[in-house]
Fold these 4 entries.
Entry 1:
Amino acid sequence: MERKYKIVFNSVLLLIIVLNIYLYFNLNDYVANRISTPGVIDHRWTFVAETWYSSGIYSNGAKDDEGNYIPTFSVTPLYPLLYRISYFLFGKKKMPYSNEYEGLSYEFMRGFIAFLNFLIMIIIYKTAVIFDKKVGLLCILLCAINIDSYKIASNYGTPDTALAFFITLSFYYLIKFLVLNHNKINLILFSVMLNFAALTKYTSHLVWIPLICFLIIYLSCNKNINAKNKIIYLVIFIGINCILQGGWMARNYYVCGTWKFTSHKAPLHLVSYLIAHNEKTNYTKTYRSLNKKVQDDKRFKNRSEGNKSVYVDSLAKDIILSHPIQFAYLTISRSFSYLLNTKKPGYMLYNNNDILVISDIYKRYKINHKKSFIPVTIGIVPILWRNGYYSFVVLNLTIKIIISIVMIFFLYGIYVIYKEDRPWSNWVIVCSLIYILYFCFVCGLTVNARLRAPIMAIIYFISSYGIIHCFLLFMKLKFYSTYSSLKNLRSAL
């Protein structure tokens, strides 16, 4: 049995390596085209990294009247730091948004992010093996065939894969702390990785709040841990948060004059979705109009970056609080689309011209079928088929079916873990849901598969639990049915 397990595990690893290598080279033209096209990829992190590397100042390129770079806190520092290290090792030849795509430092980062994507699969396998080896094998297989993860990793200008890596690693150490033993090392590593995730991308910087509440409730309910150790565990978690996230916020106060974590305009994006939904208008036009209105406001002009960020947050807060029910409804309703959304697989099959044609077909279809109850993925099939994109239709539907099955078994997996009624069952469910629901709340309005990357490994883990249980149940019923048939046959003879 152990030999068969090793054969299957090595086969899955080989599949992952082959897919990584194939898609790495297959995406060369696609990545080069997107990198060299202005406005297609978000270069905020690489821009800060380049300015930091060339001038030594953490800036997004803005200068004051004397020509000096103005320090920024528009992006968190860990991902620009990785880029700065790559520039130090391999040099910086071209800006990523220049018309020419070259530079060993960018290729290094692309390979490094692909390697992080591979490590995510290994980490969630190690997490699942804590419970069952069969669950671990299926979990890593589901991660391997998640084509979206390879495309997201190819977009190495944004830190979504790096964020997913740190979130998955923090989840792994939290599970070890809950299930295996209450080792201080596991708690320390969990806290550090959680803070590294926050310092990689701002979307995760508040996840520590529900997790500290979870930790307090867990420790208060656990009678096997003495009061002294409970206090030590909480001090460790809070202390690491204060040192890492608090350190970054202290830097922002000292350099930029504000205690805010980041000056990103995420609240403005959320408000734009709300306004677009209420007024039945296009989100992009709504955001541009709102952003222009903010930029033209006299109270906004001539302010520092920190004060501008505070002003935007205050404006967004007022709008959301004036429509709290609509905002809650929109967040919940769009979270389902957020969990089921996938990337279009055209990049695997066609050149850039065909990808643009497919995108244009999708845009025209959405404009002409705004009030249709038929999902776009289903309704657009005849049009794509008539245009000869057969392989795209088949692969896209396959990916959609797989993610739908995964989400169904995710719900069943939660039920299975709950019914097992082990000491850790409820705690594993709750901590998993904290991660998932947090990102649904923060990123759910945007309905983008790229922003779902941090929680996909957790979803695959619980789904694998449900699928394996369902399979074993089926085999048990099949065996019982066969046994009953043989018994009846013997009685007849």
Note: Residues 2-350+389-480 form one domain.
Entry 2:
Amino acid sequence: MLELNQIAELRAQQSAAFTRELLADVLNEPAQSSLDASAGRLSLDLALLLYALESDRTEIRQCFRQAALHLSRDLAARQPPDPATHRSPCEAEMHINVIASFGTQDDRGRIAGLQPWQYRNPPYPEHAALARYLAALLPYVSGAPLDHAALDAVAAACETDNATKEDRLFLLPSVRGLAAVEARDARAWNLALAQRVAAHQDEARAGDVRLLPQGFICLGGMMLAKLGRDKGMACRATSDYLPLFLLDDEAPG
């Protein structure tokens, strides 16, 4: 097993087996949109666990693609929330990273027109910069032009004295990397990727995801890598948290 965070191999094996059983049960239910959230999250967790356990690459890719399908359906189907409904833009960003990295064109198109209330509720002020970033990212990954002014505003917010740690360490490299992808600036893109992966590694080793499957792969880095490689740029970053080989097999659609 790859040593990526503090999850022990036996626990990872048990979690993978349990997740696989739960996912099979969900997928065997009659098709309904209410199951997409569960199917998407379980498929994502299984993909991450299988990667850490160095399992079959084809199955890992299939799990990621299945996650992208169901997560995109879940996001697109969300209805206006009542005040008690919690929707985390941090979780939404992770899911969008998966859709952009492993989804089909249909999956990416499904999320192009998401409204802020579909991924952020309540609108806590500490998530304002992330929400603006997502509003610029969603149309772009679906093929629309990048809103440079909106992205510049997010970058400026991340550099203020009252920016959160998450904005400075995670969001700012993502913003810079996205701008570099659009500009086809390979040097800036590689630098942003390295910063994003380094921040993720610190969190995986001793931070909030040290005991979670989400620590196994830097999904934000994977999305930036996918977008940049699609523009013909060569990624120089090398890290177990950035398994570029999972992007090598052409996705369907």
Note: DSSP finds eleven helices and no strands in the chain.
Entry 3:
Amino acid sequence: MVDSARRSMNDTSNSLRPDERPLRSVLKWVMIAALGLVGLAIAAVAISAAHHYFTYTVPASKVTVIVTAGPPFCPDDYPVYVGFSNGSDRTIQRVTFRLKARLKGRSTNLASGNLYTDDYIRAPTEGTGLCYDPPLSPYHDESARVTDKTELIWSVDYVHYTFSEATP
């Protein structure tokens, strides 16, 4: 009698009604399928992140940006030189960037809102640049006092590279 009581406590399949056994089996397989889908989703996100890292982040980190103002690079009417030197193994198709200008010792961007697109194609190890005359923001009092844009400290505030799919 003790053995049969012990056996019935440990054996839950005997305590289920016959119509509950298939339901439990279906639920088990639904859970296994759901876990499999979650695993596939995690793998897809990881593969996508790795693809972005190796096709964009690594090449972009090997591009050098050069920003300077005034001679000898540019004439007075286009005083700001912006150049990009491609040190990556991918060809750059396009560069989109925003310039930042500030007074020495200050952090306010006086050239806010200037977005430029440079579509010069740069093969690996090549570099080119252009001269710009970016307008200063009318929303800052300091902008009105600037008489010579070459006295500002210029930099690139935002940059995005478009790389070709394959190097020619």
Note: The radius of gyration is 31 Å.
Entry 4:
Amino acid sequence: MPTGPRRVAELETAFPDDVIVRFGEGDARAIGVYRRAIDDRARGVVVVVLGPGMTADAAVDSTFLRRSLPRERWATLTITLPDEANEVIPPRQRGNAGDDAPVATPNDTAQAQTKVASAAPDPTPALVRARLDTAVKAAREKGAKVVVLGELAAGAWIVWAQQQGLGADAVVAINTPRNSPRIDGQTPRDTLAALKSPALLLFETPFDWSVDDRLAADVTLRRLPPGNPAGERLDRQIRGWLNRRFDSRG
């Protein structure tokens, strides 16, 4: 069984059916794990986006938030990004195939690689966008406000998707590197400089961010205070920002 479907099957046995939200079909099938807000007057839903290969019960800071935010009237829906597509391998050169075999020139190789790239563009952005679109739609059915949160590279993907029209009310990126990954030719810093919706970027060194970075007007850049455990520090910062950003009177 492929890795993605196997992880889905494992999670379906690890969590009760009433907290599972299903996405997609066939090999693209995935699930999210929903956690209701303790207070019935929930402010909204935070979609916690984990990187490829991770699950809702992973021991990372984001999954701490999955459990802590519902105590503050924010339900959570935890999903995983799809696995990255395999890189396109350029055609093999034939220079060692025999005396009569044509030898590929640099120009031939460049043209072949261009044809491969044109015929098989990277499907990862479309897969990620589809996953996030479905998650935001599911979250919107459960709460009036939807905030999408991601850690490390997942933060870059959600900021990119939001710029492309994801439709979340706000996004939160945690320890997302400044210059990678590049998505559609843009770094996370490029995307946050052009973003036209509320965003919170929390970072620790050595991720190269600076309070002097020129980002969009509605982007809050904040360095995490030192201390452990990291999950509790994140919870305080995110909770405070959400309370200030959205009407706390609920």
Note: Strands lie at 20-23, 30-35, 44-50, 74-80, 146-151, 170-174, 199-203, 219-223.
